Amino acid sequence: MDEQGVKVKNPWHRPVVIFLAAVIIVGIIIMVAISVVQNKPLHQKYKYGIVLDAGSSHTSVFIYEWPAEKENNTGMVRQKHTCNVQGKGISSYSANPQGAGASLQLCMEEAKQKIPAHRHPETPVYLGATAGMRLLRMENEEASDKVLDSVAHSLKSYPFSYQGARIISGQEEGAFGWITVNYLSKNLRKPTGTLGALDLGGASTQITFVPQQNIESYDNSIDFRLYGNDYHLYTHSFLCYGQDQALKLSMGKKLESTLKADETDPTELRDPCFHPGYNFTRTVPNVFNTPCMKEMKLANETFFHVGLGNWSQCQQSIRKVFNTINCPYSRCSFNGVFQPSVYGDFGAFSAFFFVMDFLNLTSDNLATTKQKLAAYCSTPWKKIVENHPNIKEKYLSEYCFSATYILTLLEDGYKFTSNNWKDIRFIKKIGDSDAGWTLGYMLNLTNMIPAEAPDTSLMPYGGYVTFMFLFSLLILVLLLLVYFYFRRSTRTAQKDII
Ligand SMILES: Nc1nc2c(ncn2[C@@H]2O[C@H](COP(=O)(O)OP(=O)(O)OP(=O)(O)O)[C@@H](O)[C@H]2O)c(=O)[nH]1
Ligand SMILES: [Ca+2]
């Protein structure tokens, strides 16, 4: 009897089991709740950054956003908003530096609206100026300092975290453009190849890629360690070879040769890169007002710029702006600049895209591209204007020149051939974000691309929650089984006693 009495009062007596099960269930619920809350992506927690691209032709304000807890993952930063500053680039304010800072107001007010107010104080704002300001600094350093002071003063008046306004180097411009396109294409953490970057601005152009050959000149080489991979990049920025400055170089050369041929001041510049019927009066200083060229003194202040619309003559004239005679290395692009053979796929953006996209030349082979362009250049100006009444006349008149310049730069300059022409992708955006140097610049300055790959979580968030849920359910079922088992054995024991 004594022995049986002990059995009935065992620790698995019903109320105790129920209490224990309840405690465990509550414990599991708390565990699941905590892990769900702990790991839930907080959708509202976005961080922001602002970069101003103070280019030679105009300034753009880019606002980027990224989920706060994922800032070290590749491809997480996206462009939230962009604003084009009215008017020309900041270098055009050399005679009125105050105007440069004031010109940013509308876009910066817009940035205040776009970014939640509680994030303003921690949102970094950077301004990077490119080739227009490099040229102004060469011409007049005091004026360029004043313009930079003016934009810095203006940016400091906003509630963001001001991080500086400076002229970035050509190497930085090329390298950060490369980082941008490869970050957005999510190439950086994969073993696959990277995308070269081709940027054509108004005053300079950049080429950046991972070459197969040795880089023979120190100035053209940049090394990065990103997400645990080492990248050895070739980069070069050609100042004065953006499309606006190249047009000046090309017109300047034509004016010089016309002067030499006639030995009298030219009153007319017959230009094969402009459409037949195009006739525009220009001033001589307007062509030569750049440190990219030696000034040519002409008695005539104005000349008629007359279009001929001849593509092959246009290409001949453009070839004259590339010096391919002297090369102190095993191979060069032009002007004595070392360049290894182009290698891999390339993303060609900014004016490379604007021009080739306008002319529908982004997906043809090289021979077809040339044929189509020749036909376009010979189209009368009157017809071109009729066909595109809403396009700015300055842009419209220059597409023939610009596209011919682009082909010549890529083929004669960088040595692309009809075989690898297809490797050039003319792009404006990757996903939501514009291709350009600004994103790479911000990622670098905010240390958002770590040198070593960040530790990845064991499983994705969805999988983690499912796992926790199923695992908890399993424990619950096991506990219930244990409970019923003991209940049955207790009852059996009681029956046995009776
Ligand atoms: N056709 C066309 N041309 C454009 C457009 N936007 C800019 N451009 C021209 O394309 C060229 C390159 O523009 P951007 O890439 O903005 O040049 P930028 O940054 O001001 O100049 P850099 O300081 O040399 O980089 C300039 O000559 C611009 O005038 C556009 O929407 N359409
Ligand atoms: Ca630019």
From TrEMBL:
One BP term from GO: nucleoside diphosphate catabolic process
PROSITE patterns documented for this protein: GDA1_CD39_NTPASE
The protein, known as: Ectonucleoside triphosphate diphosphohydrolase 1
Cell compartment(s), UniProt: Membrane, Caveola; Membrane
InterPro entries, per the entry: GDA1_CD39_NTPase (IPR000407)
Keywords carried by this UniProt record: ATP-binding, Calcium, Disulfide bond, Glycoprotein, Hydrolase, Magnesium, Membrane, Nucleotide-binding, Transmembrane, Transmembrane helix
Native organism: Sinocyclocheilus anshuiensis
Active site: E173
Quaternary data: Homodimer; disulfide-linked.
Bilayer-crossing regions: 16-37, 461-486
Catalytic activity, reaction form: GDP + H2O = GMP + phosphate + H(+); ITP + H2O = IDP + phosphate + H(+); CTP + H2O = CDP + phosphate + H(+); GTP + H2O = GDP + phosphate + H(+)
Assigned protein family: Belongs to the GDA1/CD39 NTPase family.
Superkingdom of origin organism: Eukaryota
GO CC terms: caveola
